[in-house]
Specification:
With 289 residues, this protein is of the alpha+beta class. The chain has nine helices and 14 strands. It has helices at residues 34-38, 56-69, 77-90, 126-130, 146-149, 163-174, 218-229, 243-246, 274-286, and strands at 4-10, 16-22, 41-49, 52-53, 96-104, 114-121, 133-139, 179-183, 196-201, 204-208, 234-237, 247-254, 258-265, 268-269. A hairpin with a 3-residue loop joins strand 12 (247-254) and strand 13. Bound molecules: pyridoxal-5'-phosphate. The site of pyridoxal-5'-phosphate has 14 residues, from helix 7.
Length: 289
């Protein structure tokens, strides 16, 4: 099964007027589309398990919040949900796949947003999920209060401007690592370029407080839901970098890859708790909504 592409027809107010499945190899985006020329839009990546989009309502709600932060107007949740299901149905034979939903400000000057849903089978993340990954901390160059003082920086919105996030991942590779933990310029742990950070400290699963301008993760929220049913306490907190020294296990958590345990952060070695990781991933992979 190869890629699947559904093109949306949007009204100026964001209403989804229609959708059509198109050849994923076809040229469908205008060169003047602001998604292409300025990264001016928002997106979500939703995991699909055997045709079931996972955490879809949380993703749609987050897309609405991101769109509001970019003054993109209301997101037609019903229209986007239908597009996600169209892609998910086409990928139902795949145990794991994903769909990216993209809402752009549209062709420059047109005043009409554009959008599409684009899906494909997932890469094989089994090794990352079992053996773990190595991360480096990188200064994001923003203070921990940037979301409050400078909302135009769009911290905490899932915009199409992911050039910085991808550059951080390349910097990680240059340093011999697989992934990144961003740190605020005043020394608080934030998130990865495409994942949330969860530390286990004194038996509690802790993730950085959401007011720090990080993206509220759908997978992290569901991981916490699972942890609570498994009797593991959870918390959101402001965490200084030194909290890494207090952690006996850590994970980067995101859609598609799900929970990737961290075996190394900078020069710290951490245990990979295979039992907790397997339990968490079985839960995340087993979600049917
Ligand atoms: N933080 C950032 C910056 C992300 O881009 C993502 C997802 O791509 C996440 C966190 C994890 O969010 P989710 O679990 O909803 O995929």
């Amino acid at each position: 099964m190869s890629a699947v592409l559904v093109l949306l027809e949007l009204a100026p107010d964001g209403l989804v007027r229609g959708s059509r499945r198109v050849d994923p190899a076809a040229a469908v985006l205008s060169a003047a589309d602001l998604a292409a020329t300025r990264g001016d839009g928002v997106f979500e990546t939703v995991s699909i398990a055997h045709g079931h989009p996972q955490a879809l309502e949380a993703h749609l709600a987050r897309m609405g919040r991101s769109a509001a932060m970019l003054d993109l107007g209301a997101v037609d949740v019903d229209g986007w949900r239908a597009a996600v299901h169209e892609v998910a149905d086409a990928l139902a034979d795949e145990p794991e796949s994903w769909v990216k939903i993209v809402l752009s400000r549209g062709v420059e000057g047109s005043g009409i947003p554009s959008g599409f849903a684009w899906g494909a089978p997932s890469p094989d993340h089994r090794i990352a999920r079992s053996d773990g990954v190595r991360a480096v901390t990188l200064d994001r160059g923003l203070r921990s209060d940037a979301a409050a003082t400078s909302p135009w920086l769009l911290a905490g919105a899932k915009t199409l401007s992911y050039g910085v996030n991808m550059a951080a991942k390349r910097e990680a590779a240059r340093r011999g690592a697989d992934d990144v933990i961003f740190v605020s310029s005043d020394g608080l742990l934030l998130e990865g370029p495409t994942a949330n950070l969860v530390l286990r400290i004194a038996g509690e699963l802790v993730t950085p407080a959401l007011e720090l301008g990080i993206l509220p993760g759908t997978s992290q929220a569901d991981l916490f839901r699972w942890a609570e049913t498994a009797g593991i306490p959870t918390a959101y907190r402001r965490l200084p970098v030194s909290a890494l020294d207090d952690a006996d296990a850590a994970w980067l958590v995101s859609s598609v890859r799900h929970a990737a345990p961290l075996h190394t952060i900078d020069d710290r070695r951490l245990d990979v708790d295979r039992e907790v990781t397997a339990g968490a991933n079985a839960f995340l992979l087993g979600r049917t909504e």
